[in-house]
What does this fold into?
Amino acid sequence: MSRRQLFRLALGAGTAALTGGYSMAASIIRRPIPRSGESLPVIGLGTWQTFDVGADPAARAPLKEVLGEFARLGGSVIDSSPMYGRSESVAGDLAGELKLRKQLFIATKVWSSGREAGIRQMEESFRRLRTQRMDLMQVHNLIDWRTHLTTLRQWKEQGKVRYIGVTHYSAGAYDDLARVLETEDLDFVQLNYSVAEREAERRLLPLATDRRIAVLVNRPFAGGPLFKKVIGKPLPSWAKDIGCTTWAQFFLKFVISHPAVTCAIPATSKVAHLIDNMQGGVGNIPDTGMRERMVNYVAAL
It folds into this structure.
């Protein structure tokens, strides 16, 4: 079933039809944060572009529905950044309206240079996201990471943040990212990984495992081109063996099947897409042989 068909089904029959009559919240796979043992659902929610809509109630309404459904289906990890325009404020406001703060695991980033500028920006993120304690604060794209990690370690000791980490979205930064993971005491790393962008498998994912660092995955759909590649093309018949009925589930199952991955964070502004994504976090997980089969199939398209 295509995403467009799923969306029509959601409009006509409601989300119950899409969840197959079972409790996805109880079925979604969870993975532990290595440093603490706290478990997180393997599918989260990104906010880049999708939540950057401002204060217009009509523009916010679909996002409120997405966030509410995300929580209802057992989701918790929501990731944002001051780099994402108004996304932090929108996510914070909607979470407040829906009274979801206790259920959500809120992650954001610092994206500035200099200690004082970083502190100001992070304090503004606390305000926008309507929280007094951030679950995860990350240094965005390694910008002035030494300075910000010094602040974040102090804040972690004070209980102001629960976990700290670093991020990047490009394989071109992997050497720098690896050096930080090798030398710094971190809880999380966020990086790009998908069936089409597998560079992280070579060094970073094994390194994260060795260093007991949780992994958040951005770009699980390679930024969108994966869907363009499979337009009009059917899933392989063997996709049913891992419970996949859509390409989104196929792509997400590949990502979360890597043992180093803690949570993938696809972004969406549509409820049907959100439900589709969440279904990628239930059922059978591809083993090594199936993962290789998935890579080869997509590469041959």
